[in-house]
Amino acid sequence: MGCKQATIAVHSGANIDEQYGCVVPPIYLSSTYNFTGFNEPRPHDYSRRGNPGRDVVQQVLAELEGGVGAVMTSSGMSAIHLLCSVFLKPGDCLVAPHDCYGGSYRLFDSQSKRGAYKVIFVDQSDEQALKQALAKKPKLVLIETPSNPLLRIVDIQYICGLAHDVGALVVVDNTFLSPVLQKPLDLGADLVVHSCTKYLNGHSDLIAGAIIAKESSIAEEVAWWANNIGVTAAAFDSYLLLRGIRTLSARVLLQQNNAVAIVDYLQQQPQVKKLFYPGLKTHPGHEIAVKQQQGFGAMLSFELDGDEQTMRRFLSALKLLTLAESLGGVESLISHTATMTHAGMSAEARAQAGITDLLLRVSVGIEDSQDLIADLDNAFQAAATR
What we know:
The chain has 14 helices and 12 strands. It has helices at 5-11, 52-65, 76-87, 102-113, 127-134, 156-165, 178-181, 216-229, 235-245, 248-267, 286-292, 308-317, 347-353, 369-384, and strands at 69-73, 93-97, 118-122, 140-144, 169-173, 191-195, 209-213, 272-276, 299-304, 322-323, 333-336, 359-363. Helix 4 links the parallel strand 2 (93-97) and strand 3. The longest helix has 20 residues, at 248-267. It is globular.
């Protein structure tokens, strides 16, 4: 029976315990498993390679994204690094967004400087620049849409077509929307990557990543390398992620509703110089978002009109929005991009990506939207006071 996303999130992997009839899968903390006899291993022999609890959550991830297999890793960055380790050799080329997540940018930049592979950072919404990059015959193309932190939108299906024409595999970072709001594999991508730390877990108490593949051969290769280099996730982390996924749809949809209310408020706020949210009809890529997404998500960013002192007063006055990195949790977070999530990028690289020193990124939580708006309103009043 083909079920909807919310049903898959709640029921996949449930009621599978045959020993005691546990509705929730048990946590298997054993690091090793006995052999039934000489050269007769069980399905699991060592938890780095496979853990029953991790098996369950990987199955759920694959079902949610419409893939054939998934690997849960120790962090979102280890998932990105694993992909590059599997598919790129010295001399191979990676095409990545020029405004990608700061941690990804730092990894690609540092690895390319060491000669692990070559990287081309490009504005993927610039068709001519993108085609010039693809003419270099990359082995891997990373798409991040909406981008972090400016929420830029690119056409997944179109870029996948171009990339496949030059023999490249395409991986889409789907962290910002989750499979509730976007299904990259259905749009032509070969792989999807997540920082499970964010929306998939949703409670800011877990560091984990995931890779989901469309084809079995790719899924098997990624799983082999994950075991080989030891980046697979732990048993308790697998339990926490599965627990978070159960409420994924409910959380994401409520967060999105709250974000829409906050965006409506920010549009009327004179101290907001620029507002970035794909749901706005004036947002670049809005029409593409309408076509390939099932919603506009709960991430937004804006530039303050003022200077550093204005920003300091604004941030200091907030009571409900917490100044912190990360995103996707039930609590609302705000971050200063230049000194936090993208501090690993040079000032020149940030400027080229359009990231200014007064840009703030907001991850909207599940609080009452009117309370969040009141908190923002109080902070804007404080920011205006000299």
